[in-house]
Specification:
With 88 residues, the protein is α/β, with parallel strands linked by helices. The protein has one domain: STAS domain (Transcription Regulator spoIIAA), CATH 3.30.750. 52% of the residues lie in helices and 14% in strands. It has 5 helices and 3 strands; from the N terminus they run E-H-E-H-H-E-H-H. The chain has a 3-stranded parallel beta sheet. Helix 4 packs across helix 5. The longest helix is centred in the N-terminal third of the chain and has 16 residues. It is globular. It starts with a strand and ends in a 5-residue tail after the last helix. The C terminus is likely disordered.
Length: 88
């Protein structure tokens, strides 16, 4: 495994303790050679993460949609999925 994507659509707000926990998770994953990515981050949460300087240390990317993360991080899986017919 080389990537973990945290889907944040259900997170409406984040406090300093949660931001620190994310920093620790990011650091531990980095030590294991795994990148942490975020998807579907709401604006108030993004603002708080920026103020906590979390984003400057984030090892991965931020995606608008979970599907975007999947297509960027697993292009072969998506290409194979598109090649299959929906109905036969």
């Amino acid at each position: 495994m080389s990537d973990v994507v945290l889907m944040c659509s259900a997170i409406n707000e984040i406090d300093l303790s949660a931001a620190e926990t994310l920093e620790q998770i990011n650091k531990r994953l980095k030590e294991m050679g795994i990148r942490l990515h975020l998807s579907e981050v709401k604006e108030p949460v993004m603002d708080r993460l920026c103020r906590a300087h979390f984003l400057s240390d984030l090892t991965g990317q931020i995606f608008q949609a979970q599907y975007d993360a999947f297509t960027v991080l697993s292009p072969d899986a998506v290409a194979g999925d598109q090649a299959k017919p929906v109905m036969s």
